[in-house]
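User: We ran a pulldown and think these components assemble together. Before we commit to crystallization trials, I'd like a predicted model of the whole complex to look at. Sequences follow.
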Amino acid sequence: AQSVSQHNHHVILSEAASLELGCNYSYGGTVNLFWYVQYPGQHLQLLLKYFSGDPLVKGIKGFEAEFIKSKFSFNLRKPSVQWSDTAEYFCATGGSYIPTFGRGTSLIVHP
Amino acid sequence: DTGVSQDPRHKITKRGQNVTFRCDPISEHNRLYWYRQTLGQGPEFLTYFQNEAQLEKSRLLSDRFSAERPKGSFSTLEIQRTEQGDSAMYLCASSSTGADTEAFFGQGTRLTVV
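Assistant: Here's a predicted model for the assembly, 225 residues in total across the polymer chains.
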C-alpha cells in the first residue's frame, strides 16, 4: 500500500518568511497526492491535490506544491506566510481510494 | 450546512462502557471513511464503505470496534468495552466515486475514556 512520510514535524517561522514542507511518497502505481490543513479547532480541509498533468499545483490561500516523480516528493510551498497559516499540515496519498496520511507538520507563525 | 457532520462532538465515558458515534456524509457521496487521530499524529485509517458495503478494515480495528452503514447513507461506529487507549479523535470523511476525488472531513468526535 502507498504511504507518505513528512520530515518536518514542527516548524516555527516569522511572518513573511517562506515555507517549504517536505512530503515523500512510496511508489505504488497510480499516484494521487493531497495536502490537507487543520486550523486550530477546525476540521481537515483540502489545500490542494495532484492526480496528473502539470506537476506544479496551485491551491487555496497562496499555497502550491510540486510533484517531482524522480524524487518521490510532493513538497508544499508558500512564498510568504501569515500568522493565520498557523495550523497542522498533512500530506496524504489516495492511490487505493483510501487516503493515507503522514504524521503531519505543526506550523507556528509568529506575528 | 451540507458538509460531513458527526455526533456527538465530545464523549466522556467510563472504561468498560460502550459508545456509538454517528456520521452523516455529504448526501451524494458513495464512499465513507472512519479514521482515528491521536495527538501529534495524522489520521489513521479504520474502515471504508462504498454505499452500504464495508470494503476494507484496518488491523487497527479490533473486535471491539464495529461500523455499519445500513442504507448507504449515515454510518455508525461502535466501540464496546472501551479502554483508556481508545481515547482519541474519531474522524469521518466522505467522497464521491471516481478517480479524481478528495475526501471531505467532519469535525470529529473526541472520545475520552476515564
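Chain A is about 0% helix and 50% strand. That may be worth checking against your pulldown data before setting up trials.

User: Thanks, that helps.
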